[in-house]
TrEMBL record:
Pfam families per UniProt: LolB
Entry's Gene Ontology BP terms: lipoprotein localization to outer membrane; protein transport
Name of the gene encoding the protein in the UniProt record: lolB
Subcellular location: Cell outer membrane
A cellular component annotation (GO) from this entry: cell outer membrane
Record keywords: Cell outer membrane, Chaperone, Lipoprotein, Membrane, Palmitate, Protein transport, Signal, Transport
Primary location recorded for the protein, binned into one broad class: membrane
Membrane topology: Lipid-anchor
Name by which UniProt lists this protein: Outer-membrane lipoprotein LolB
CDD domains: LolB (cd16326)
Signal peptide residue numbers: 1-23
NCBIfam families reported for this sequence: lolB
Binding partners and assembly: Monomer.
SUPFAM superfamilies the UniProt entry points to: Prokaryotic lipoproteins and lipoprotein localization factors (SSF89392)
C-alpha cells in the first residue's frame, strides 16, 4: 500500500468514526417512546431478557447473572452469584411469590421484594423492576422524568429510583433499556440487559 492509498484509507476511517460519534437518536415528544413499548408488550406479553446485575451497600457488594422471563403478570427470575455459584429461582405474580435455590429449599411469601432480601441477602425491587427494566411505568404513582430526546431518564416510587443510563435498538422490537441503575441509599443495583427476546404469540 503506497503512501497516498494509506492516507485515503485513514481519512475514510476517520470520517466513519466521526459520523458514528455524531449519530443522534431520533427525538420524540415526551412519552412517545414509552407508549411504543407499552403497545409492544401488549402484543408480546411473553418476553425474556438475560444479563448481569451488581449490588452494593456502599461498603460491600456482589455480582449475579440473571435470566428473567415474563408471561403477562407471571414472572420467573433466575439468579446465579458470580462468586460461589449459588443459584435461586424466584417466581411471582400479583398473588404472591416463592423462591427455591441453594440451601433454602422452597420458601413462599406475599412480597417478592422481601423474599429476595431475606433469601438472597440483598434488597432488589423486583416487583417494580418487572416494569421498569422494560422501560415501562409500574403504576400511576411512579415519578417520571424524560431526557431531551423523549426517552425516560428516571423513574421512581416509594424508596427506589431507577436511572436509565443507556438504551439500545434490538434487531426486532422497540428501543429498549440496556443499562439501568436502581438506587435506595445506601443500596445500589446496577443491571446490564444483554439479550431481549419476545415469544411469538401465535406460536
Amino acid at each position: 500500500m503506497n503512501v497516498r492509498t494509506r492516507r485515503a484509507v485513514l481519512l475514510a476511517l476517520s470520517l466513519s468514526m466521526l459520523l458514528g460519534a455524531c449519530a443522534v437518536r431520533e427525538q420524540r415528544p415526551e412519552g412517545e417512546w414509552l407508549e411504543e413499548r407499552q403497545s409492544w408488550f401488549e402484543n408480546y406479553p411473553d418476553w425474556r431478557v438475560t444479563g448481569r446485575l451488581s449490588v452494593s451497600d456502599g461498603e460491600q457488594g456482589g455480582q449475579m447473572a440473571f435470566d428473567w422471563r415474563g408471561q403477562g403478570s407471571q414472572h420467573d427470575l433466575r439468579l446465579r452469584s458470580v462468586v460461589g455459584g449459588k443459584q435461586w429461582r424466584l417466581m411471582f405474580n400479583e398473588g404472591g411469590a416463592l423462591i427455591e435455590g441453594s440451601d433454602v429449599g422452597l420458601v413462599r411469601a406475599e412480597d417478592p421484594d422481601l423474599l429476595v432480601a431475606e433469601i438472597v441477602g440483598w434488597p432488589i425491587p423486583v416487583s417494580q423492576l418487572a416494569y421498569w427494566l422494560r422501560g415501562l411505568t409500574a403504576s400511576e404513582d411512579d415519578r417520571v422524568s424524560f431526557a431531551a430526546d423523549g426517552t425516560m431518564d428516571m423513574i421512581g416510587q416509594d424508596d427506589w429510583t431507577l436511572e436509565y443510563l443507556r438504551y439500545d435498538q434490538p434487531a426486532s422490537g422497540p428501543l429498549m433499556p440496556e443499562r439501568v441503575q436502581a438506587l435506595s441509599p445506601p443500596y445500589r443495583v446496577r443491571m446490564i440487559l444483554r439479550t431481549w427476546r419476545w415469544m411469538d404469540p401465535a406460536a
